[in-house]
Amino acid sequence: MVNIPLLLMGCGGVGRQLLHHIISCRDLHSKQGVRLRVVGVCDSKSMVTIRDVLISELGDEFLLQLCKVKSSGSSLNELANFGECQVFSGQEIEKKVMDVAATLCRSSVVDCSASSQTIALLSRVVNLYCCVVLANKKPLTSSLESYDMLVSHPRRIRHESTVGAGLPVISSINRILSSGDPIFRIMGSLSGTLGYVMSQVEGGRPFSQVVNAAKSLGYTEPDPRDDLSGMDVARKALILARLLGHRINMDSIKIESLYPVEMGPDVMPLEEFLANGLPSLDKDIQKRIDSASSNGNVLRYVCLIEESRCEVGIQEVAKDSALGRLKGSDNVLEIYSRCYSEQPLVIQGAGAGNDTTAAGVLADILDLQDLFQH
Amino acid sequence: MVNIPLLLMGCGGVGRQLLHHIISCRDLHSKQGVRLRVVGVCDSKSMVTIRDVLISELGDEFLLQLCKVKSSGSSLNELANFGECQVFSGQEIEKKVMDVAATLCRSSVVDCSASSQTIALLSRVVNLYCCVVLANKKPLTSSLESYDMLVSHPRRIRHESTVGAGLPVISSINRILSSGDPIFRIMGSLSGTLGYVMSQVEGGRPFSQVVNAAKSLGYTEPDPRDDLSGMDVARKALILARLLGHRINMDSIKIESLYPVEMGPDVMPLEEFLANGLPSLDKDIQKRIDSASSNGNVLRYVCLIEESRCEVGIQEVAKDSALGRLKGSDNVLEIYSRCYSEQPLVIQGAGAGNDTTAAGVLADILDLQDLFQH
């Protein structure tokens, strides 16, 4: 039986879903000869763990209780009296994580947070023979220095769920690269929200109306400008570009925001943006749609990586390309390489949601199992 | 440096391309800390290897010479005087392979042949801690008994290139399954030849004309009936179905042949089939196309796996589905699971060709590297 000790950072939606997946896969994994042993869980303020991480684990009942406590908005401290566990907080957390990692010799540290506070810690554990699995994009989109540190042992890191949720994007790119097939172009729609918006406006609905509809469907962040700024897509683009070997930072990426600076969150309150800002953008977007349409094309908010170019923004694409045919909130990625030169390799499907994202994280953890063989 | 000793079976187009890929990736793999060491190559009649497989290898110059000898149609015996090597033939081969495998303790045996003669040998080496990488479909589509033997150590076998050439089909399905996301339906077009034929006839060209055109473009086997029989697609369907846990054999698959039995290769000579047989099929196919078209659909030769169903044949599919939009000789696979339930996960791209197939094999070999760590 291969035993994988696991330390989870972040117990928001994705982290909790991961715990649920782990518990419901117990039988499946046992048949495959693998046992995932959760030895610690942290959020930004606290950490719960157990006394002897070499032999014990946080039981499934405890983990379910943890999920319940967290979804009700309470603190991990509430678990202190529920079953055998130790609770640490504040500055103790980092020390305890290092301690657990050093004791275990080899473990997997899984970052399902959305925080940049984990970066320093991850860079340290990776040198303690730890494997790192990320759903969190921040550690890979910070400085090149910390990126290099994180990927210095490439077999010990997985981060499928940082791009396209569980879609097999990173694993497929890694396969292509390791076979010596050079990728010369990647183009994709990597935001379910912007994919939905761009395919909806194409039918003639005003931009402002579509964004409002997306907001009430729960497709956008509470402030839709978090999506419309393009920053989230830019982070994914940076992750892909660095994977292809580009030595760039966030500031090298050309990012098109779908609203002007004077409508930014620091300048304009959300209500005003929704009521007056957004509608004032309708005309311009409609003009661009009409112009694309007269070329037989449609507009998509894409990420494009090619030679030294890395940019995210609105592009005209052929109506009958994989990108142009995209409907709804699916993600799609077109990869061009020597083997896929005329027609790209296309990967398409749901690229968001806690279930899918957590499933991608779990597949990554399982993919590390050979490193845990004795 | 991780050292992967490699024994190649089959040096036809794919096998030779693999050797070329390995040689041209030397620098890349060295940067990744991996060294592929080719210690033996077999074809159906002979085997070349070296005296001390623990420390030596067949050099790159030797391997290039081997490729040259094989592409000219000569025997591996010709290499006996070229550099340091040992040549074995006939019954000696199996004994020598076992010998090499036992000496190396852990090695990877790569089957790029198209033969069922390798099955017995593969089942034996897999018990010697060998890893197995297959482009050859036969070992996985023979009896359930030998299938079970081959996959008895699931982490030691890879076979991406048995379905869709280098397309990340098997690796993606394995990821989905290991994350506990149950796949309930797979539908795809897994033959570049039949994909081309079915998308071409849709435009009104007679079936016989399209098949002849595909033949002269080199898209079909020398006898196009090898493609039209559906047997090759059925093999891929069986591999996918078994991967999903279906305990079935070839004879459980419903296979639609695009020609009737009385036109089979044992009954009708190729020339007569091309001249008279094929054209007599035009009318019926046209009728089916018209009927589909009146429903707004198109015809595709698909593989369908769903619950206990596993079948390959012509199906009506929606014009605007990934399958319906397929043009040219690309493969496409739609995977439906809990995470991809309404919209499938779609993987699309070139699914044939020695370059792509060999790249898939090489990615598989690299994917095994953690098992070769000390």
UniProtKB/TrEMBL annotation, chains A, B:
The alphabetical list of record keywords is: Amino-acid biosynthesis, Methionine biosynthesis, NADP, Oxidoreductase, Threonine biosynthesis
Oxidoreductase keyword on record: yes
**Pfam families given in the database record:** Homoserine_dh
Entries under PROSITE patterns matching the protein: HOMOSER_DHGENASE
Reaction(s) catalyzed by this protein?
Answer: L-homoserine + NADP(+) = L-aspartate 4-semialdehyde + NADPH + H(+)
- Cross-referenced InterPro entries, in alphabetical order? Bifunc_Aspkin/hSer_DH (IPR011147), HDH_cat (IPR001342), HDH_CS (IPR019811), HDH_short (IPR022697), NAD(P)-bd_dom_sf (IPR036291)
Question: Does the keyword Amino-acid biosynthesis belong to this entry?
Answer: yes
Q: What is its EC number?
A: 1.1.1.3
Q: In which pathway does it act?
A: Amino-acid biosynthesis; L-threonine biosynthesis; L-threonine from L-aspartate: step 3/5; Amino-acid biosynthesis; L-methionine biosynthesis via de novo pathway; L-homoserine from L-aspartate: step 3/3
The family line of this record is: Belongs to the homoserine dehydrogenase family.
- Indicate what this protein is called per its UniProt record: Homoserine dehydrogenase
Q: What is the lineage of its organism?
A: Eukaryota, Viridiplantae, Streptophyta, Embryophyta, Tracheophyta
